């Protein structure tokens, strides 16, 4: 029997909703599971129950306090903000030149920046280690601000360049006719218009810096200077073989929630930023 | 108010061919000149070179006798209106208009005076605190013009300013721009691809094609005395019909052409004896072809199709093997239908004649009897006042 | 460079001196802008050289020395010994280390598996998101969650889910009846790489899906309507319209992901503690450098990592160039 058009459409709808449901569950479940675990202590941890059984907040208290995750949050915030701030400041002028001015070597600079953004971090690790020691920054968050520029700067320059390119040329020409110098064009015309793009780019770079692990693991040894990823990676139990899963999950939830909230608030911008950087690559 | 002189101005990008080829042009103080041409003819490039947004590869440019080749746009003292308006989206209308003046470090009260004055001229006063995104297309266009006016430039440049507007608004803005010119008496160079805009706005039109100036002249000069086939077909809509033929006999006052179908026509156009026997093209505008009866008329043709515009009617006549049909325009309604055979005649006094290379043979004047050969090295026409009557000297 | 650009304007240089009032020789707009452009990019370039170029050069330099991590100032040149050395009929150096080759294999296997799975699932997800249905915003928010979660947290979360005794994965598989006894996902060498791949795919499919979705949304819908009118089936529409049109964006997303996967370190370091079965080349290099304090050997491994990644990137760009020939010419 042939299905009517309506029946077929209904069938398609059903599969779409089912797929959407499955996708959402798979995406959210691991984090949900982490929250579940973080609310359990002692033997409850080893229950494999998919609904909340107990609400113990002790894990959060000890994760934030004893294990120094609170301090790490502050470190991560400082490092990511300063590194991204410097990168944005430097890249806005560079992006303007790369997007708007025809000059010899522009193509090579863009290519170099793209290459550096694909550098494996380990390739600069020993050289960076030497530089960090030379500057006396070893085991301080200064070392991370310096080293995070390695990957943040090419990213911000690249994304801002693509954003700048999408602004109409005539806007800049109108400013030239009005007698604006390049500096005025950048600071009075482009920077204000680019505001939202700057936020997007900054946010993406911030997340990248927030999540960085290798440099943070290598250049920081003392507990109080650790960033969030290292603090979580290094959380140890009393014995070597028993990991404090409740604490780890509590700390994970704590450091993830700010990022998830940020991402959900700036959803649309983040998606446009992610794709702007890549689609034109 | 300034005079602009272009001297062998040219432009090339790298090693590529020239996009602007040795252009000579003089624009007089207070004159409204329209540069018109098909897309890609280099008209926008030329305007941007005049503005200083595009480097000049060769030749000289003078404003009031001063060479300005390497001056910045603001040093040249130009005001420009862009196709997309290019208003600063983060500034209010007032700030948009004041920006250039602030950069020029004018005193505050002077800025306020100028902005308010141009706002008054363009009726923008109630909008001064709005952002561009809250304005309609026509309002944005006015702000863009206002921004240019506020700078009190020596030279106004318009780059296809009306092409983003809908048809009705375009006619209205066209009249406003014309009125503005009458009021400000400023020198305006206006670029468009639309020959109607050119005809209605210009005191003089510059027809540009592939980086060359094809002809410079008043609108009616271009219409009545096109210098070549390109101008003949570019100016006027529907475009001029071109009928192939051979020059049978030449003369100082009259020439005889044998048309493609063998019939001969005597036209009041001077041709040199050397052209005798060469192929020529006879040009006639759609409104100049006259109907006759099938019995009397010298030529017959089948009507391919008819377009009724209401106020006028276009008939497309089968041109046989020549391909493109002729167009006949009637200002009255007509009951001639497609498929009918009609008789028509070509009034000799309305015919144009072009040689093999497309260059026009000099026509005797039409209209008010003045005679002139536009596009030659005649001195540029000056206007005592900017009224757009049928002025010839 | 400036000499060349000045000679671009022959007529300006040859032109007779202009009227008396003209100012002295000035640079043209383009020249002034080009000059200013260098000033504007200079800070970024200098900074980039300081944090990327210079450290890379120093890494290369150290790869020829026997420096140790705690005393990098004391070193001797050892030539290529860190890479490969022959002594007493035996071979030494990174290239002679079976663990290095194991790491190379692991990395390539990881990259191939996770990127192809990501592409597959990413495409499905993008096609789903491209449909119109209620609650789309919620699904979009949900798929951003894995992307937003820090990699280390991902590693810990999945580590817990893969726990052999109390992990959710084993529990679910047991309940469904797919396995009889719990699997040691992390400890078992044959399974641990799959654990890493699964966690990585979970985290990065959203990125891929968003990229592909952006490309999908650029396809004008009347193309599909035209194809429908022409009687194309859903599969034909996908194969003949969608795929060719999103190919450029797909290749770019693919390059991004491959480059990212090749330098994987944190996920493996935390999830499987750099076990031999999963260690990546980045992990190997860092282990030599930090855990064994062998700065020279570690640097040599780093240089090899760099060369390998650069080589693969060059291959990709070379392939991609064919499809972008026209674009390049316009630049």
Structure description:
The complex is a heterotrimer of chains A (281), B (393) and C (331). Helices cover 73% and strands 0% of the residues of chain A. Chain A is mainly alpha-helical. Chain A has two domains: 5-56, no CATH class; 71-279, MetI-like (MetI-like fold, Orthogonal Bundle). Chain A starts with a helix and ends with a helix. Chain B has a six-stranded mixed β-sheet with strand order 6-7-8-3-9-10, sandwiched between helices. In chain B, strands 13-12-11-14-20 form a five-stranded antiparallel β-sheet. With 393 residues, chain B is an alpha+beta fold. Chain B is 23% helix and 29% strand. The two termini of chain B are 23 Å apart. In chain B, helix 3 crosses helix 4 (108-121) and helix 3 packs parallel to helix 5. Chain B folds into two domains: 4-224, Rossmann fold (3-Layer(aba) Sandwich), CATH 3.40.50.300; 242-354, OB fold (Dihydrolipoamide Acetyltransferase, E2P) (Beta Barrel), CATH 2.40.50. Chain B has nine helices and 20 strands. With 331 residues, chain C is mostly helical. Chain C has 13 helices and two strands, in the order αααββαααααααααα. In chain C, helix 5 packs across helix 8. The longest helix of chain C is centred in the last third of the chain and has 36 residues, at 295-330. The model of chain C is unreliable at 1-24 and 326-331 (pLDDT under 50). The chains are: A mainly alpha (281), B alpha+beta (393), C mainly alpha (331). Chains in contact: A-B, A-C, B-C. Chains A and C meet through helix 1, helix 3, helix 4, helix 5 and helix 6 of A and helix 3, helix 4, helix 5, helix 6 and helix 8 of C.
Question: In a few lines, what is going on in this structure?
Answer:
The complex is a heterotrimer of chains A (281), B (393) and C (331). With 281 residues, chain A is mostly helical. Chain A has helices at residues 5-38, 58-64, 69-100, 106-117, 125-134, 141-165, 169-177, 182-193, 195-211, 214-219, 228-233, 245-265, 267-279.
What's the β-strand tally of chain C?
A: 2
Mean pLDDT of chain C: 83
Structural class computed from helices and strand pairing of chain C: mainly alpha
Shape of chain A: flat
CATH class of the largest domain in chain A: Mainly Alpha
Q: Largest interface, with Cβ-Cβ < 8 Å?
A: A-C, 94 and 101 residues
Order of helices and strands of chain A: HHHHHHHHHHHHH
What's the pLDDT, averaged over the residues of chain A?
85
Q: From N to C, what is the helix and strand string of chain C?
A: HHHEEHHHHHHHHHH
Keywords (chain B): ATP-binding, Cell inner membrane, Cell membrane, Membrane, Nucleotide-binding, Transport
Domain ABC transporter (chain B): 4-235
InterPro entries (chain B): AAA+_ATPase, ABC_transporter-like_ATP-bd, ABC_transporter-like_CS, ABC_transpr_MalK-like, ABC_transpr_MalK/UgpC-like, Mo/tungstate-bd_C_term_dom, NA-bd_OB-fold, OB_MalK-like
Pfam family, one (chain B): OB_MalK
């Amino acid at each position: 029997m042939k299905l009517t058009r309506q029946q077929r459409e209904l069938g398609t709808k059903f599969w779409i909703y089912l797929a959407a449901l499955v996708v959402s569950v798979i995406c959210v479940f691991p984090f949900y599971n982490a929250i579940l675990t973080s609310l359990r202590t002692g033997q409850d941890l080893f229950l494999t129950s998919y609904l909340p059984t107990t609400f113990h907040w002790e894990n959060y208290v000890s994760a934030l306090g004893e294990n120094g995750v609170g301090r790490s949050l502050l470190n991560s915030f400082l490092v990511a903000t300063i590194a991204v701030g410097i990168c944005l400041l430097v890249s806005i002028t560079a992006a303007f030149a790369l997007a708007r001015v025809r000059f010899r070597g522009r193509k090579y600079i863009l290519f170099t920046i793209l290459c550096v953004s694909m550098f494996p971090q380990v390739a600069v690790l020993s050289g960076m280690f030497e530089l960090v020691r030379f500057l006396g920054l070893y085991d301080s968050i200064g070392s991370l601000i310096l080293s995070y520029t390695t990957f943040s700067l090419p990213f911000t320059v690249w994304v801002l360049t693509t954003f700048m390119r999408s602004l109409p040329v005539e806007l800049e020409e109108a400013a030239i006719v009005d007698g604006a110098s390049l500096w005025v064009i950048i600071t009075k015309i482009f920077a204000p218009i680019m505001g939202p793009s700057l936020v997007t780019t900054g946010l993406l770079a911030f997340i990248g810096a927030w999540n960085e692990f290798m440099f943070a693991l290598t250049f920081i040894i003392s507990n109080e200077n650790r960033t969030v990823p290292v603090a979580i990676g290094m959380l140890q139990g009393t014995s070597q073989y028993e990991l404090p899963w409740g604490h780890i999950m509590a700390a994970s939830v704590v450091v993830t929630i700010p990022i998830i909230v940020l991402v959900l608030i700036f959803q649309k911008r983040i998606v446009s930023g992610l794709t702007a950087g890549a689609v034109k690559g | 108010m300034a005079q602009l002189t272009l001297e062998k101005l040219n432009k090339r990008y790298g090693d590529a061919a020239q996009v602007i080829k040795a252009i000579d042009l003089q624009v007089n103080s207070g004159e409204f000149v329209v540069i018109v041409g098909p897309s890609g003819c280099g008209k926008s490039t030329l305007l941007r070179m005049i503005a200083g947004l595009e480097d000049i590869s060769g030749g000289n440019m003078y404003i009031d006798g001063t060479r300005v080749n390497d001056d910045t746009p603001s040093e040249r003292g130009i005001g420009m209106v862009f196709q997309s308006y290019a208003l600063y989206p983060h500034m209010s209308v007032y700030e948009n208009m004041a920006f250039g003046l602030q950069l020029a470090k004018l005193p505050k009260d002077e800025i306020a005076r100028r902005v308010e004055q141009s706002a008054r001229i363009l009726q923008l006063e109630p909008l001064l605190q709005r952002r561009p995104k809250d304005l309609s297309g026509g309002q944005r266009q006015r702000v863009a013009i206002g921004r240019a006016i506020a700078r009190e430039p020596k030279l106004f440049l318009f780059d296809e300013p009306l092409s983003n507007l809908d048809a009705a608004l375009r006619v209205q803005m066209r009249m406003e721009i014309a009125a503005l010119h009458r009021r400000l008496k400023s020198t305006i160079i206006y670029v468009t691809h639309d020959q109607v805009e050119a005809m209605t706005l210009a005191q003089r039109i510059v027809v540009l094609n592939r980086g060359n100036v094809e002809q410079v002249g008043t609108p009616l000069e271009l219409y009545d005395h096109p210098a070549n086939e390109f101008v003949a077909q570019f100016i006027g809509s529907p475009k001029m019909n071109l009928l192939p033929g051979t020059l049978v006999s030449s003369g100082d006052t009259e020439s005889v052409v044998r048309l493609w179908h063998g019939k001969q026509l005597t036209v009041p156009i001077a041709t040199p004896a050397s052209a005798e026997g060469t192929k020529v093209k006879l040009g006639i505008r759609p409104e100049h072809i006259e109907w006759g009866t099938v019995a009397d008329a010298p030529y017959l043709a089948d009507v391919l199709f008819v377009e009724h515009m209401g106020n006028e009617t276009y008939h497309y006549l089968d041109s046989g093997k020549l391909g493109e049909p002729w167009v006949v325009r009637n200002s009255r309604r007509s009951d001639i239908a497609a498929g009918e055979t009609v008789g028509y005649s070509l009034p000799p006094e309305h015919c144009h004649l072009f040689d093999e290379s497309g260059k026009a043979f000099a026509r005797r004047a039409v209209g008010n009897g003045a005679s002139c050969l536009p596009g030659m090295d005649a001195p540029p026409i000056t206007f005592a006042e900017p009224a757009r009557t049928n002025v010839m000297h | 460079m400036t000499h060349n650009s000045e000679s671009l304007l022959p007529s300006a240089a040859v032109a007779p001196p202009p009227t008396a009032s003209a100012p002295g020789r000035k640079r043209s707009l383009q020249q002034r802008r080009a000059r200013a452009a260098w000033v504007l990019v200079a800070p970024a370039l200098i900074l980039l050289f300081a944090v990327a170029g210079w450290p890379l050069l120093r890494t290369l330099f150290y790869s020829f020395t026997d420096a140790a991590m705690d005393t990098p100032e004391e070193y001797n040149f050892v030539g290529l010994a860190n890479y490969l050395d022959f002594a007493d009929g035996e071979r030494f150096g990174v290239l002679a280390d079976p663990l290095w080759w194991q790491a190379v294999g692991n990395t390539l296997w990881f990259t191939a598996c996770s990127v192809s799975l990501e592409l597959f699932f990413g495409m499905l997800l993008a096609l789903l998101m491209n449909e119109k249905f209620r609650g789309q915003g919620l699904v979009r928010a949900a798929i951003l969650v894995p992307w937003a979660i820090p990699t280390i947290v991902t590693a810990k979360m999945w580590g817990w889910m893969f726990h052999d005794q109390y992990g959710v994965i084993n529990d679910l598989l047991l309940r469904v009846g797919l396995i009889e006894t719990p699997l040691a996902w992390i400890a078992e060498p044959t399974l641990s790489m799959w654990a890493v791949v699964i966690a990585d795919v979970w985290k990065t499919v959203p990125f891929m899906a968003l990229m592909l979705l952006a490309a999908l949304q650029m396809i004008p819908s009347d193309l599909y309507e035209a194809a429908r009118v022409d009687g194309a089936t859903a599969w034909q529409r996908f194969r003949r319209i969608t795929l060719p049109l999103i190919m450029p964006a797909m290749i770019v997303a693919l390059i991004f992901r491959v480059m990212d996967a090749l330098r994987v370190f944190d996920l493996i370091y935390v999830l499987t503690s750099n076990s031999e079965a999963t260690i990546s080349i980045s992990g190997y290099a860092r282990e030599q450098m930090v855990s064994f304090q062998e700065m020279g050997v570690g640097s040599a491994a780093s240089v090899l990592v760099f060369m390998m990644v650069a080589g693969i990137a060059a291959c990709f760009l070379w392939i991609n160039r064919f499809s972008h020939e026209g674009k390049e010419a316009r630049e």
